[in-house]
Design a protein that fits this description.
Elements lengths: L1 E4 L5 E4 L2 H6 L3 H4 L10 H17 L3 E8 L5 E13 L4 E11 L10 E2 L14 H18 L3 H32 L1
Antiparallel strand pairs: 1-2, 1-5, 3-4, 3-6, 4-5
């Protein structure tokens, strides 16, 4: 499930699978609304990690519990990379991904560095969302291999993809507003 934030860390795009998983509509999840379905014991940890990533404009990976549509909690791994654009590499926000874990982490360490990226499980969502899942997984692998030129190329592609996803969200919202 892909997400995009603005420079303040507010969610501007979230994959459609979010509603199937949490029961929260995309409108409810925008900005910081998504945090309402984070387990209360994890909420401060996730918030502090995300705020630190925004402040330092750095990539992050975090594991936490998320309330599902049934009211149960599942473990999630979420990671994001910063997106920069002109002029002068202006910080635009983050392009990230969320994925349920098959099993709770053994060590219950919520914040971690780069994790081995699993195969993105989502078959629904737009082609852009699915592409972002794969590019984020590739980013983790390339960063681990320390291939800086390749990593830079993937980050450029992720930035552009984040812009396209934000545009897709605006177009969908406009189409829905015209329909009603």
């Amino acid at each position: 499930m892909v997400f995009v934030t603005d420079a303040a860390g507010l969610v501007t795009h979230l994959g459609r699978h979010w509603t199937k998983l949490t029961g929260q509509t995309l409108v409810e999840a925008r900005n910081l609304g998504w945090s309402r379905v984070v387990h209360p014991d994890d909420r401060d940890i996730v918030r502090d990690l995300v705020l630190d990533a925004i402040r330092t404009r750095s990539a992050f990976t975090v594991r936490f519990r998320l309330r599902t549509v049934t009211g149960e909690y599942v473990w999630i791994v979420s990671g994001a990379v910063p997106s920069f654009g002109p002029p002068g590499r202006t910080f635009l926000g983050f392009l990230g991904s969320l994925m349920p874990l098959d099993e709770p982490p053994d060590d219950i360490v919520r914040a971690a560095g780069l994790l081995k990226p699993p195969e993105p499980p989502w078959q629904d969502g737009s082609p852009l969302e699915r592409a972002a899942d794969y590019l984020l997984a590739a980013h983790s692998l390339i960063a681990r291999a320390a291939r800086l030129e390749t990593l830079e190329a993937v980050e450029i592609a992720l930035r552009r993809l984040g812009e396209d996803l934000a545009e897709e969200t605006v177009n969908e919202a406009s189409a829905q507003a015209e329909f009603h």
